[in-house]
Design goal:
386 residues, alpha/beta, Rossmann fold, seven-stranded parallel β-sheet, seven-stranded mixed β-sheet, 14 helices
């Protein structure tokens, strides 16, 4: 990184995922500028970066939930990386400031369906007009599934048939606990409006309204339906794709039971005070803010994502399984890699981009972008098993 390179601003560096991301950015030589309200907490992260024999780019004191506070910090041409959640309640100021200030790129770690939908439907067109690239949900959810889907699509096309339907599943091999921030974001996800892509249209549905099983190496993995970036990004691969389904395996053996309960949960969520009660329960059972699984615990977990493509009569055309590091380590490395690509001028355009159409440089074809995306993921140990 040279003095003329864009600044990389990291929001949420004092959180668990934020600290991992700060270290990943610093290892790449991006000299991240850490942005937050607490100088002491940010200085502690700088100390971690220094102890890892890397360099931070400095500190900026700002409230990431206050647009006026962020406007005093963000400059045109910056690359903004945000790990501040829940994004539904706290994420809007960062992305709108990035657009208003003419940032080079905005990248975040959300997994929350309503926020994802706003990025593509509302903020994406605004960002395109402003010349800003948006990369949302650029972590464990939902990059591995986009990779598997893009590779499975390519395999089907290479075999002579363009898929009509794509199913994606996300799982974790081994034991993995949540950080405090993830628990706070996940607490209300099931009660949020989700969406699905069927008959070439996006429709609103309840979370977990369906489920399905995938077999990986002889083991059955169950997943709940979830609103994800794949519903927006996978159809971009081909106009022939009219159905995309994404499933998240967080409920494990209880997946079918949770799916049945999700309808009742959605009804209960309409009761006044339910959201506050759910948040209170989460705060009692989740790790403290900024805390998460240890390095030893994370080393025992591996990310799995599977994508299957089908023709118009339901015959399977192709299947790809990808494996990578633990969700938290993978998320940090993906955010840092995407920021590095933005700084290096390797994004394909502006507006709301998807993982498979974002990389390879301005004007790259879909095929070239998929290749650049897959090659970058391989450097992070996120690669196909088959």
């Amino acid at each position: 990184m040279t003095d003329s390179s864009p600044r990389v601003l990291l929001f949420g560096a004092s959180g668990f995922t934020g600290r991992l991301t700060a270290l990943a950015l610093a290892r790449r030589g991006l000299r991240p500028v850490l942005v937050g309200r607490s100088r002491s907490k940010l200085e502690a992260v700088v100390g971690e970066i220094l102890s890892a024999k890397s360099v931070a780019g400095g500190l900026e004191i700002a409230d990431v939930t206050d647009p006026s506070s962020l406007a005093a910090v963000v400059r045109a041409g910056d690359v903004l990386v945000s790990t501040v959640g829940p994004f539904v309640t706290m994420g809007e100021p960062a992305i709108t400031t990035a657009i208003a200030k003419g940032a080079l790129a905005y990248i975040d770690s959300t997994g929350e369906p309503p926020f994802i939908r706003r990025v593509f439907d509302e903020w994406g067109p605004q960002a395109d007009r402003a010349g800003v690239a948006l990369l949302t949900a650029f972590g464990y959810d939902y990059v591995p599934g986009n990779l598997a889907a893009a590779l499975a699509f390519r395999d089907a096309v290479d075999a002579g048939v363009s898929p009509v339907r794509v199913d994606v599943g996300y799982f974790v091999k081994g034991t993995m606990s949540m950080s405090g921030g993830t628990a706070a974001s996940a607490a209300g996800v099931l009660t949020m409006p989700h969406f699905e892509f069927t008959r070439a249209h996006l429709t609103t549905v309840r979370g977990g309204n369906s489920w399905r099983s995938f077999e990986i190496d002889g083991t059955q993995w169950d997943g709940l339906s979830v609103g994800a970036t794949e519903h927006f990004t996978v159809p971009r691969l081909s106009p022939a794709i009219t159905e995309v389904n994404t499933y998240l395996g967080w409920a494990g053996k209880n997946t079918r039971h949770v799916s049945r309960l999700s309808g009742a949960t959605s009804l209960v969520a309409k009761v006044p005070g339910f959201d506050r009660a759910l948040g209170a329960l989460s705060s009692r059972t989740a790790p403290a803010p900024g805390e998460g699984p240890s390095e030893e615990t994370r080393a025992q977990a591996r990310t799995l994502a599977v994508a299957e493509t089908f023709d118009g009569v339901g015959r399977q055309l192709s299947r790809v399984v990808v494996e990578g590091p633990s969700p938290y380590d993978l998320t940090a490395e993906l955010l840092a890699w995407a920021a590095d690509q933005a700084v290096g001028g390797q994004l394909t355009g502006t507006g709301a981009l998807g993982p498979a159409d974002a990389f390879g440089g301005p004007g790259a074809t879909v095929a070239a972008s998929i290749e650049a995306f897959a090659a970058g993921c391989a450097t992070l140990d996120l690669s196909p098993l088959n």
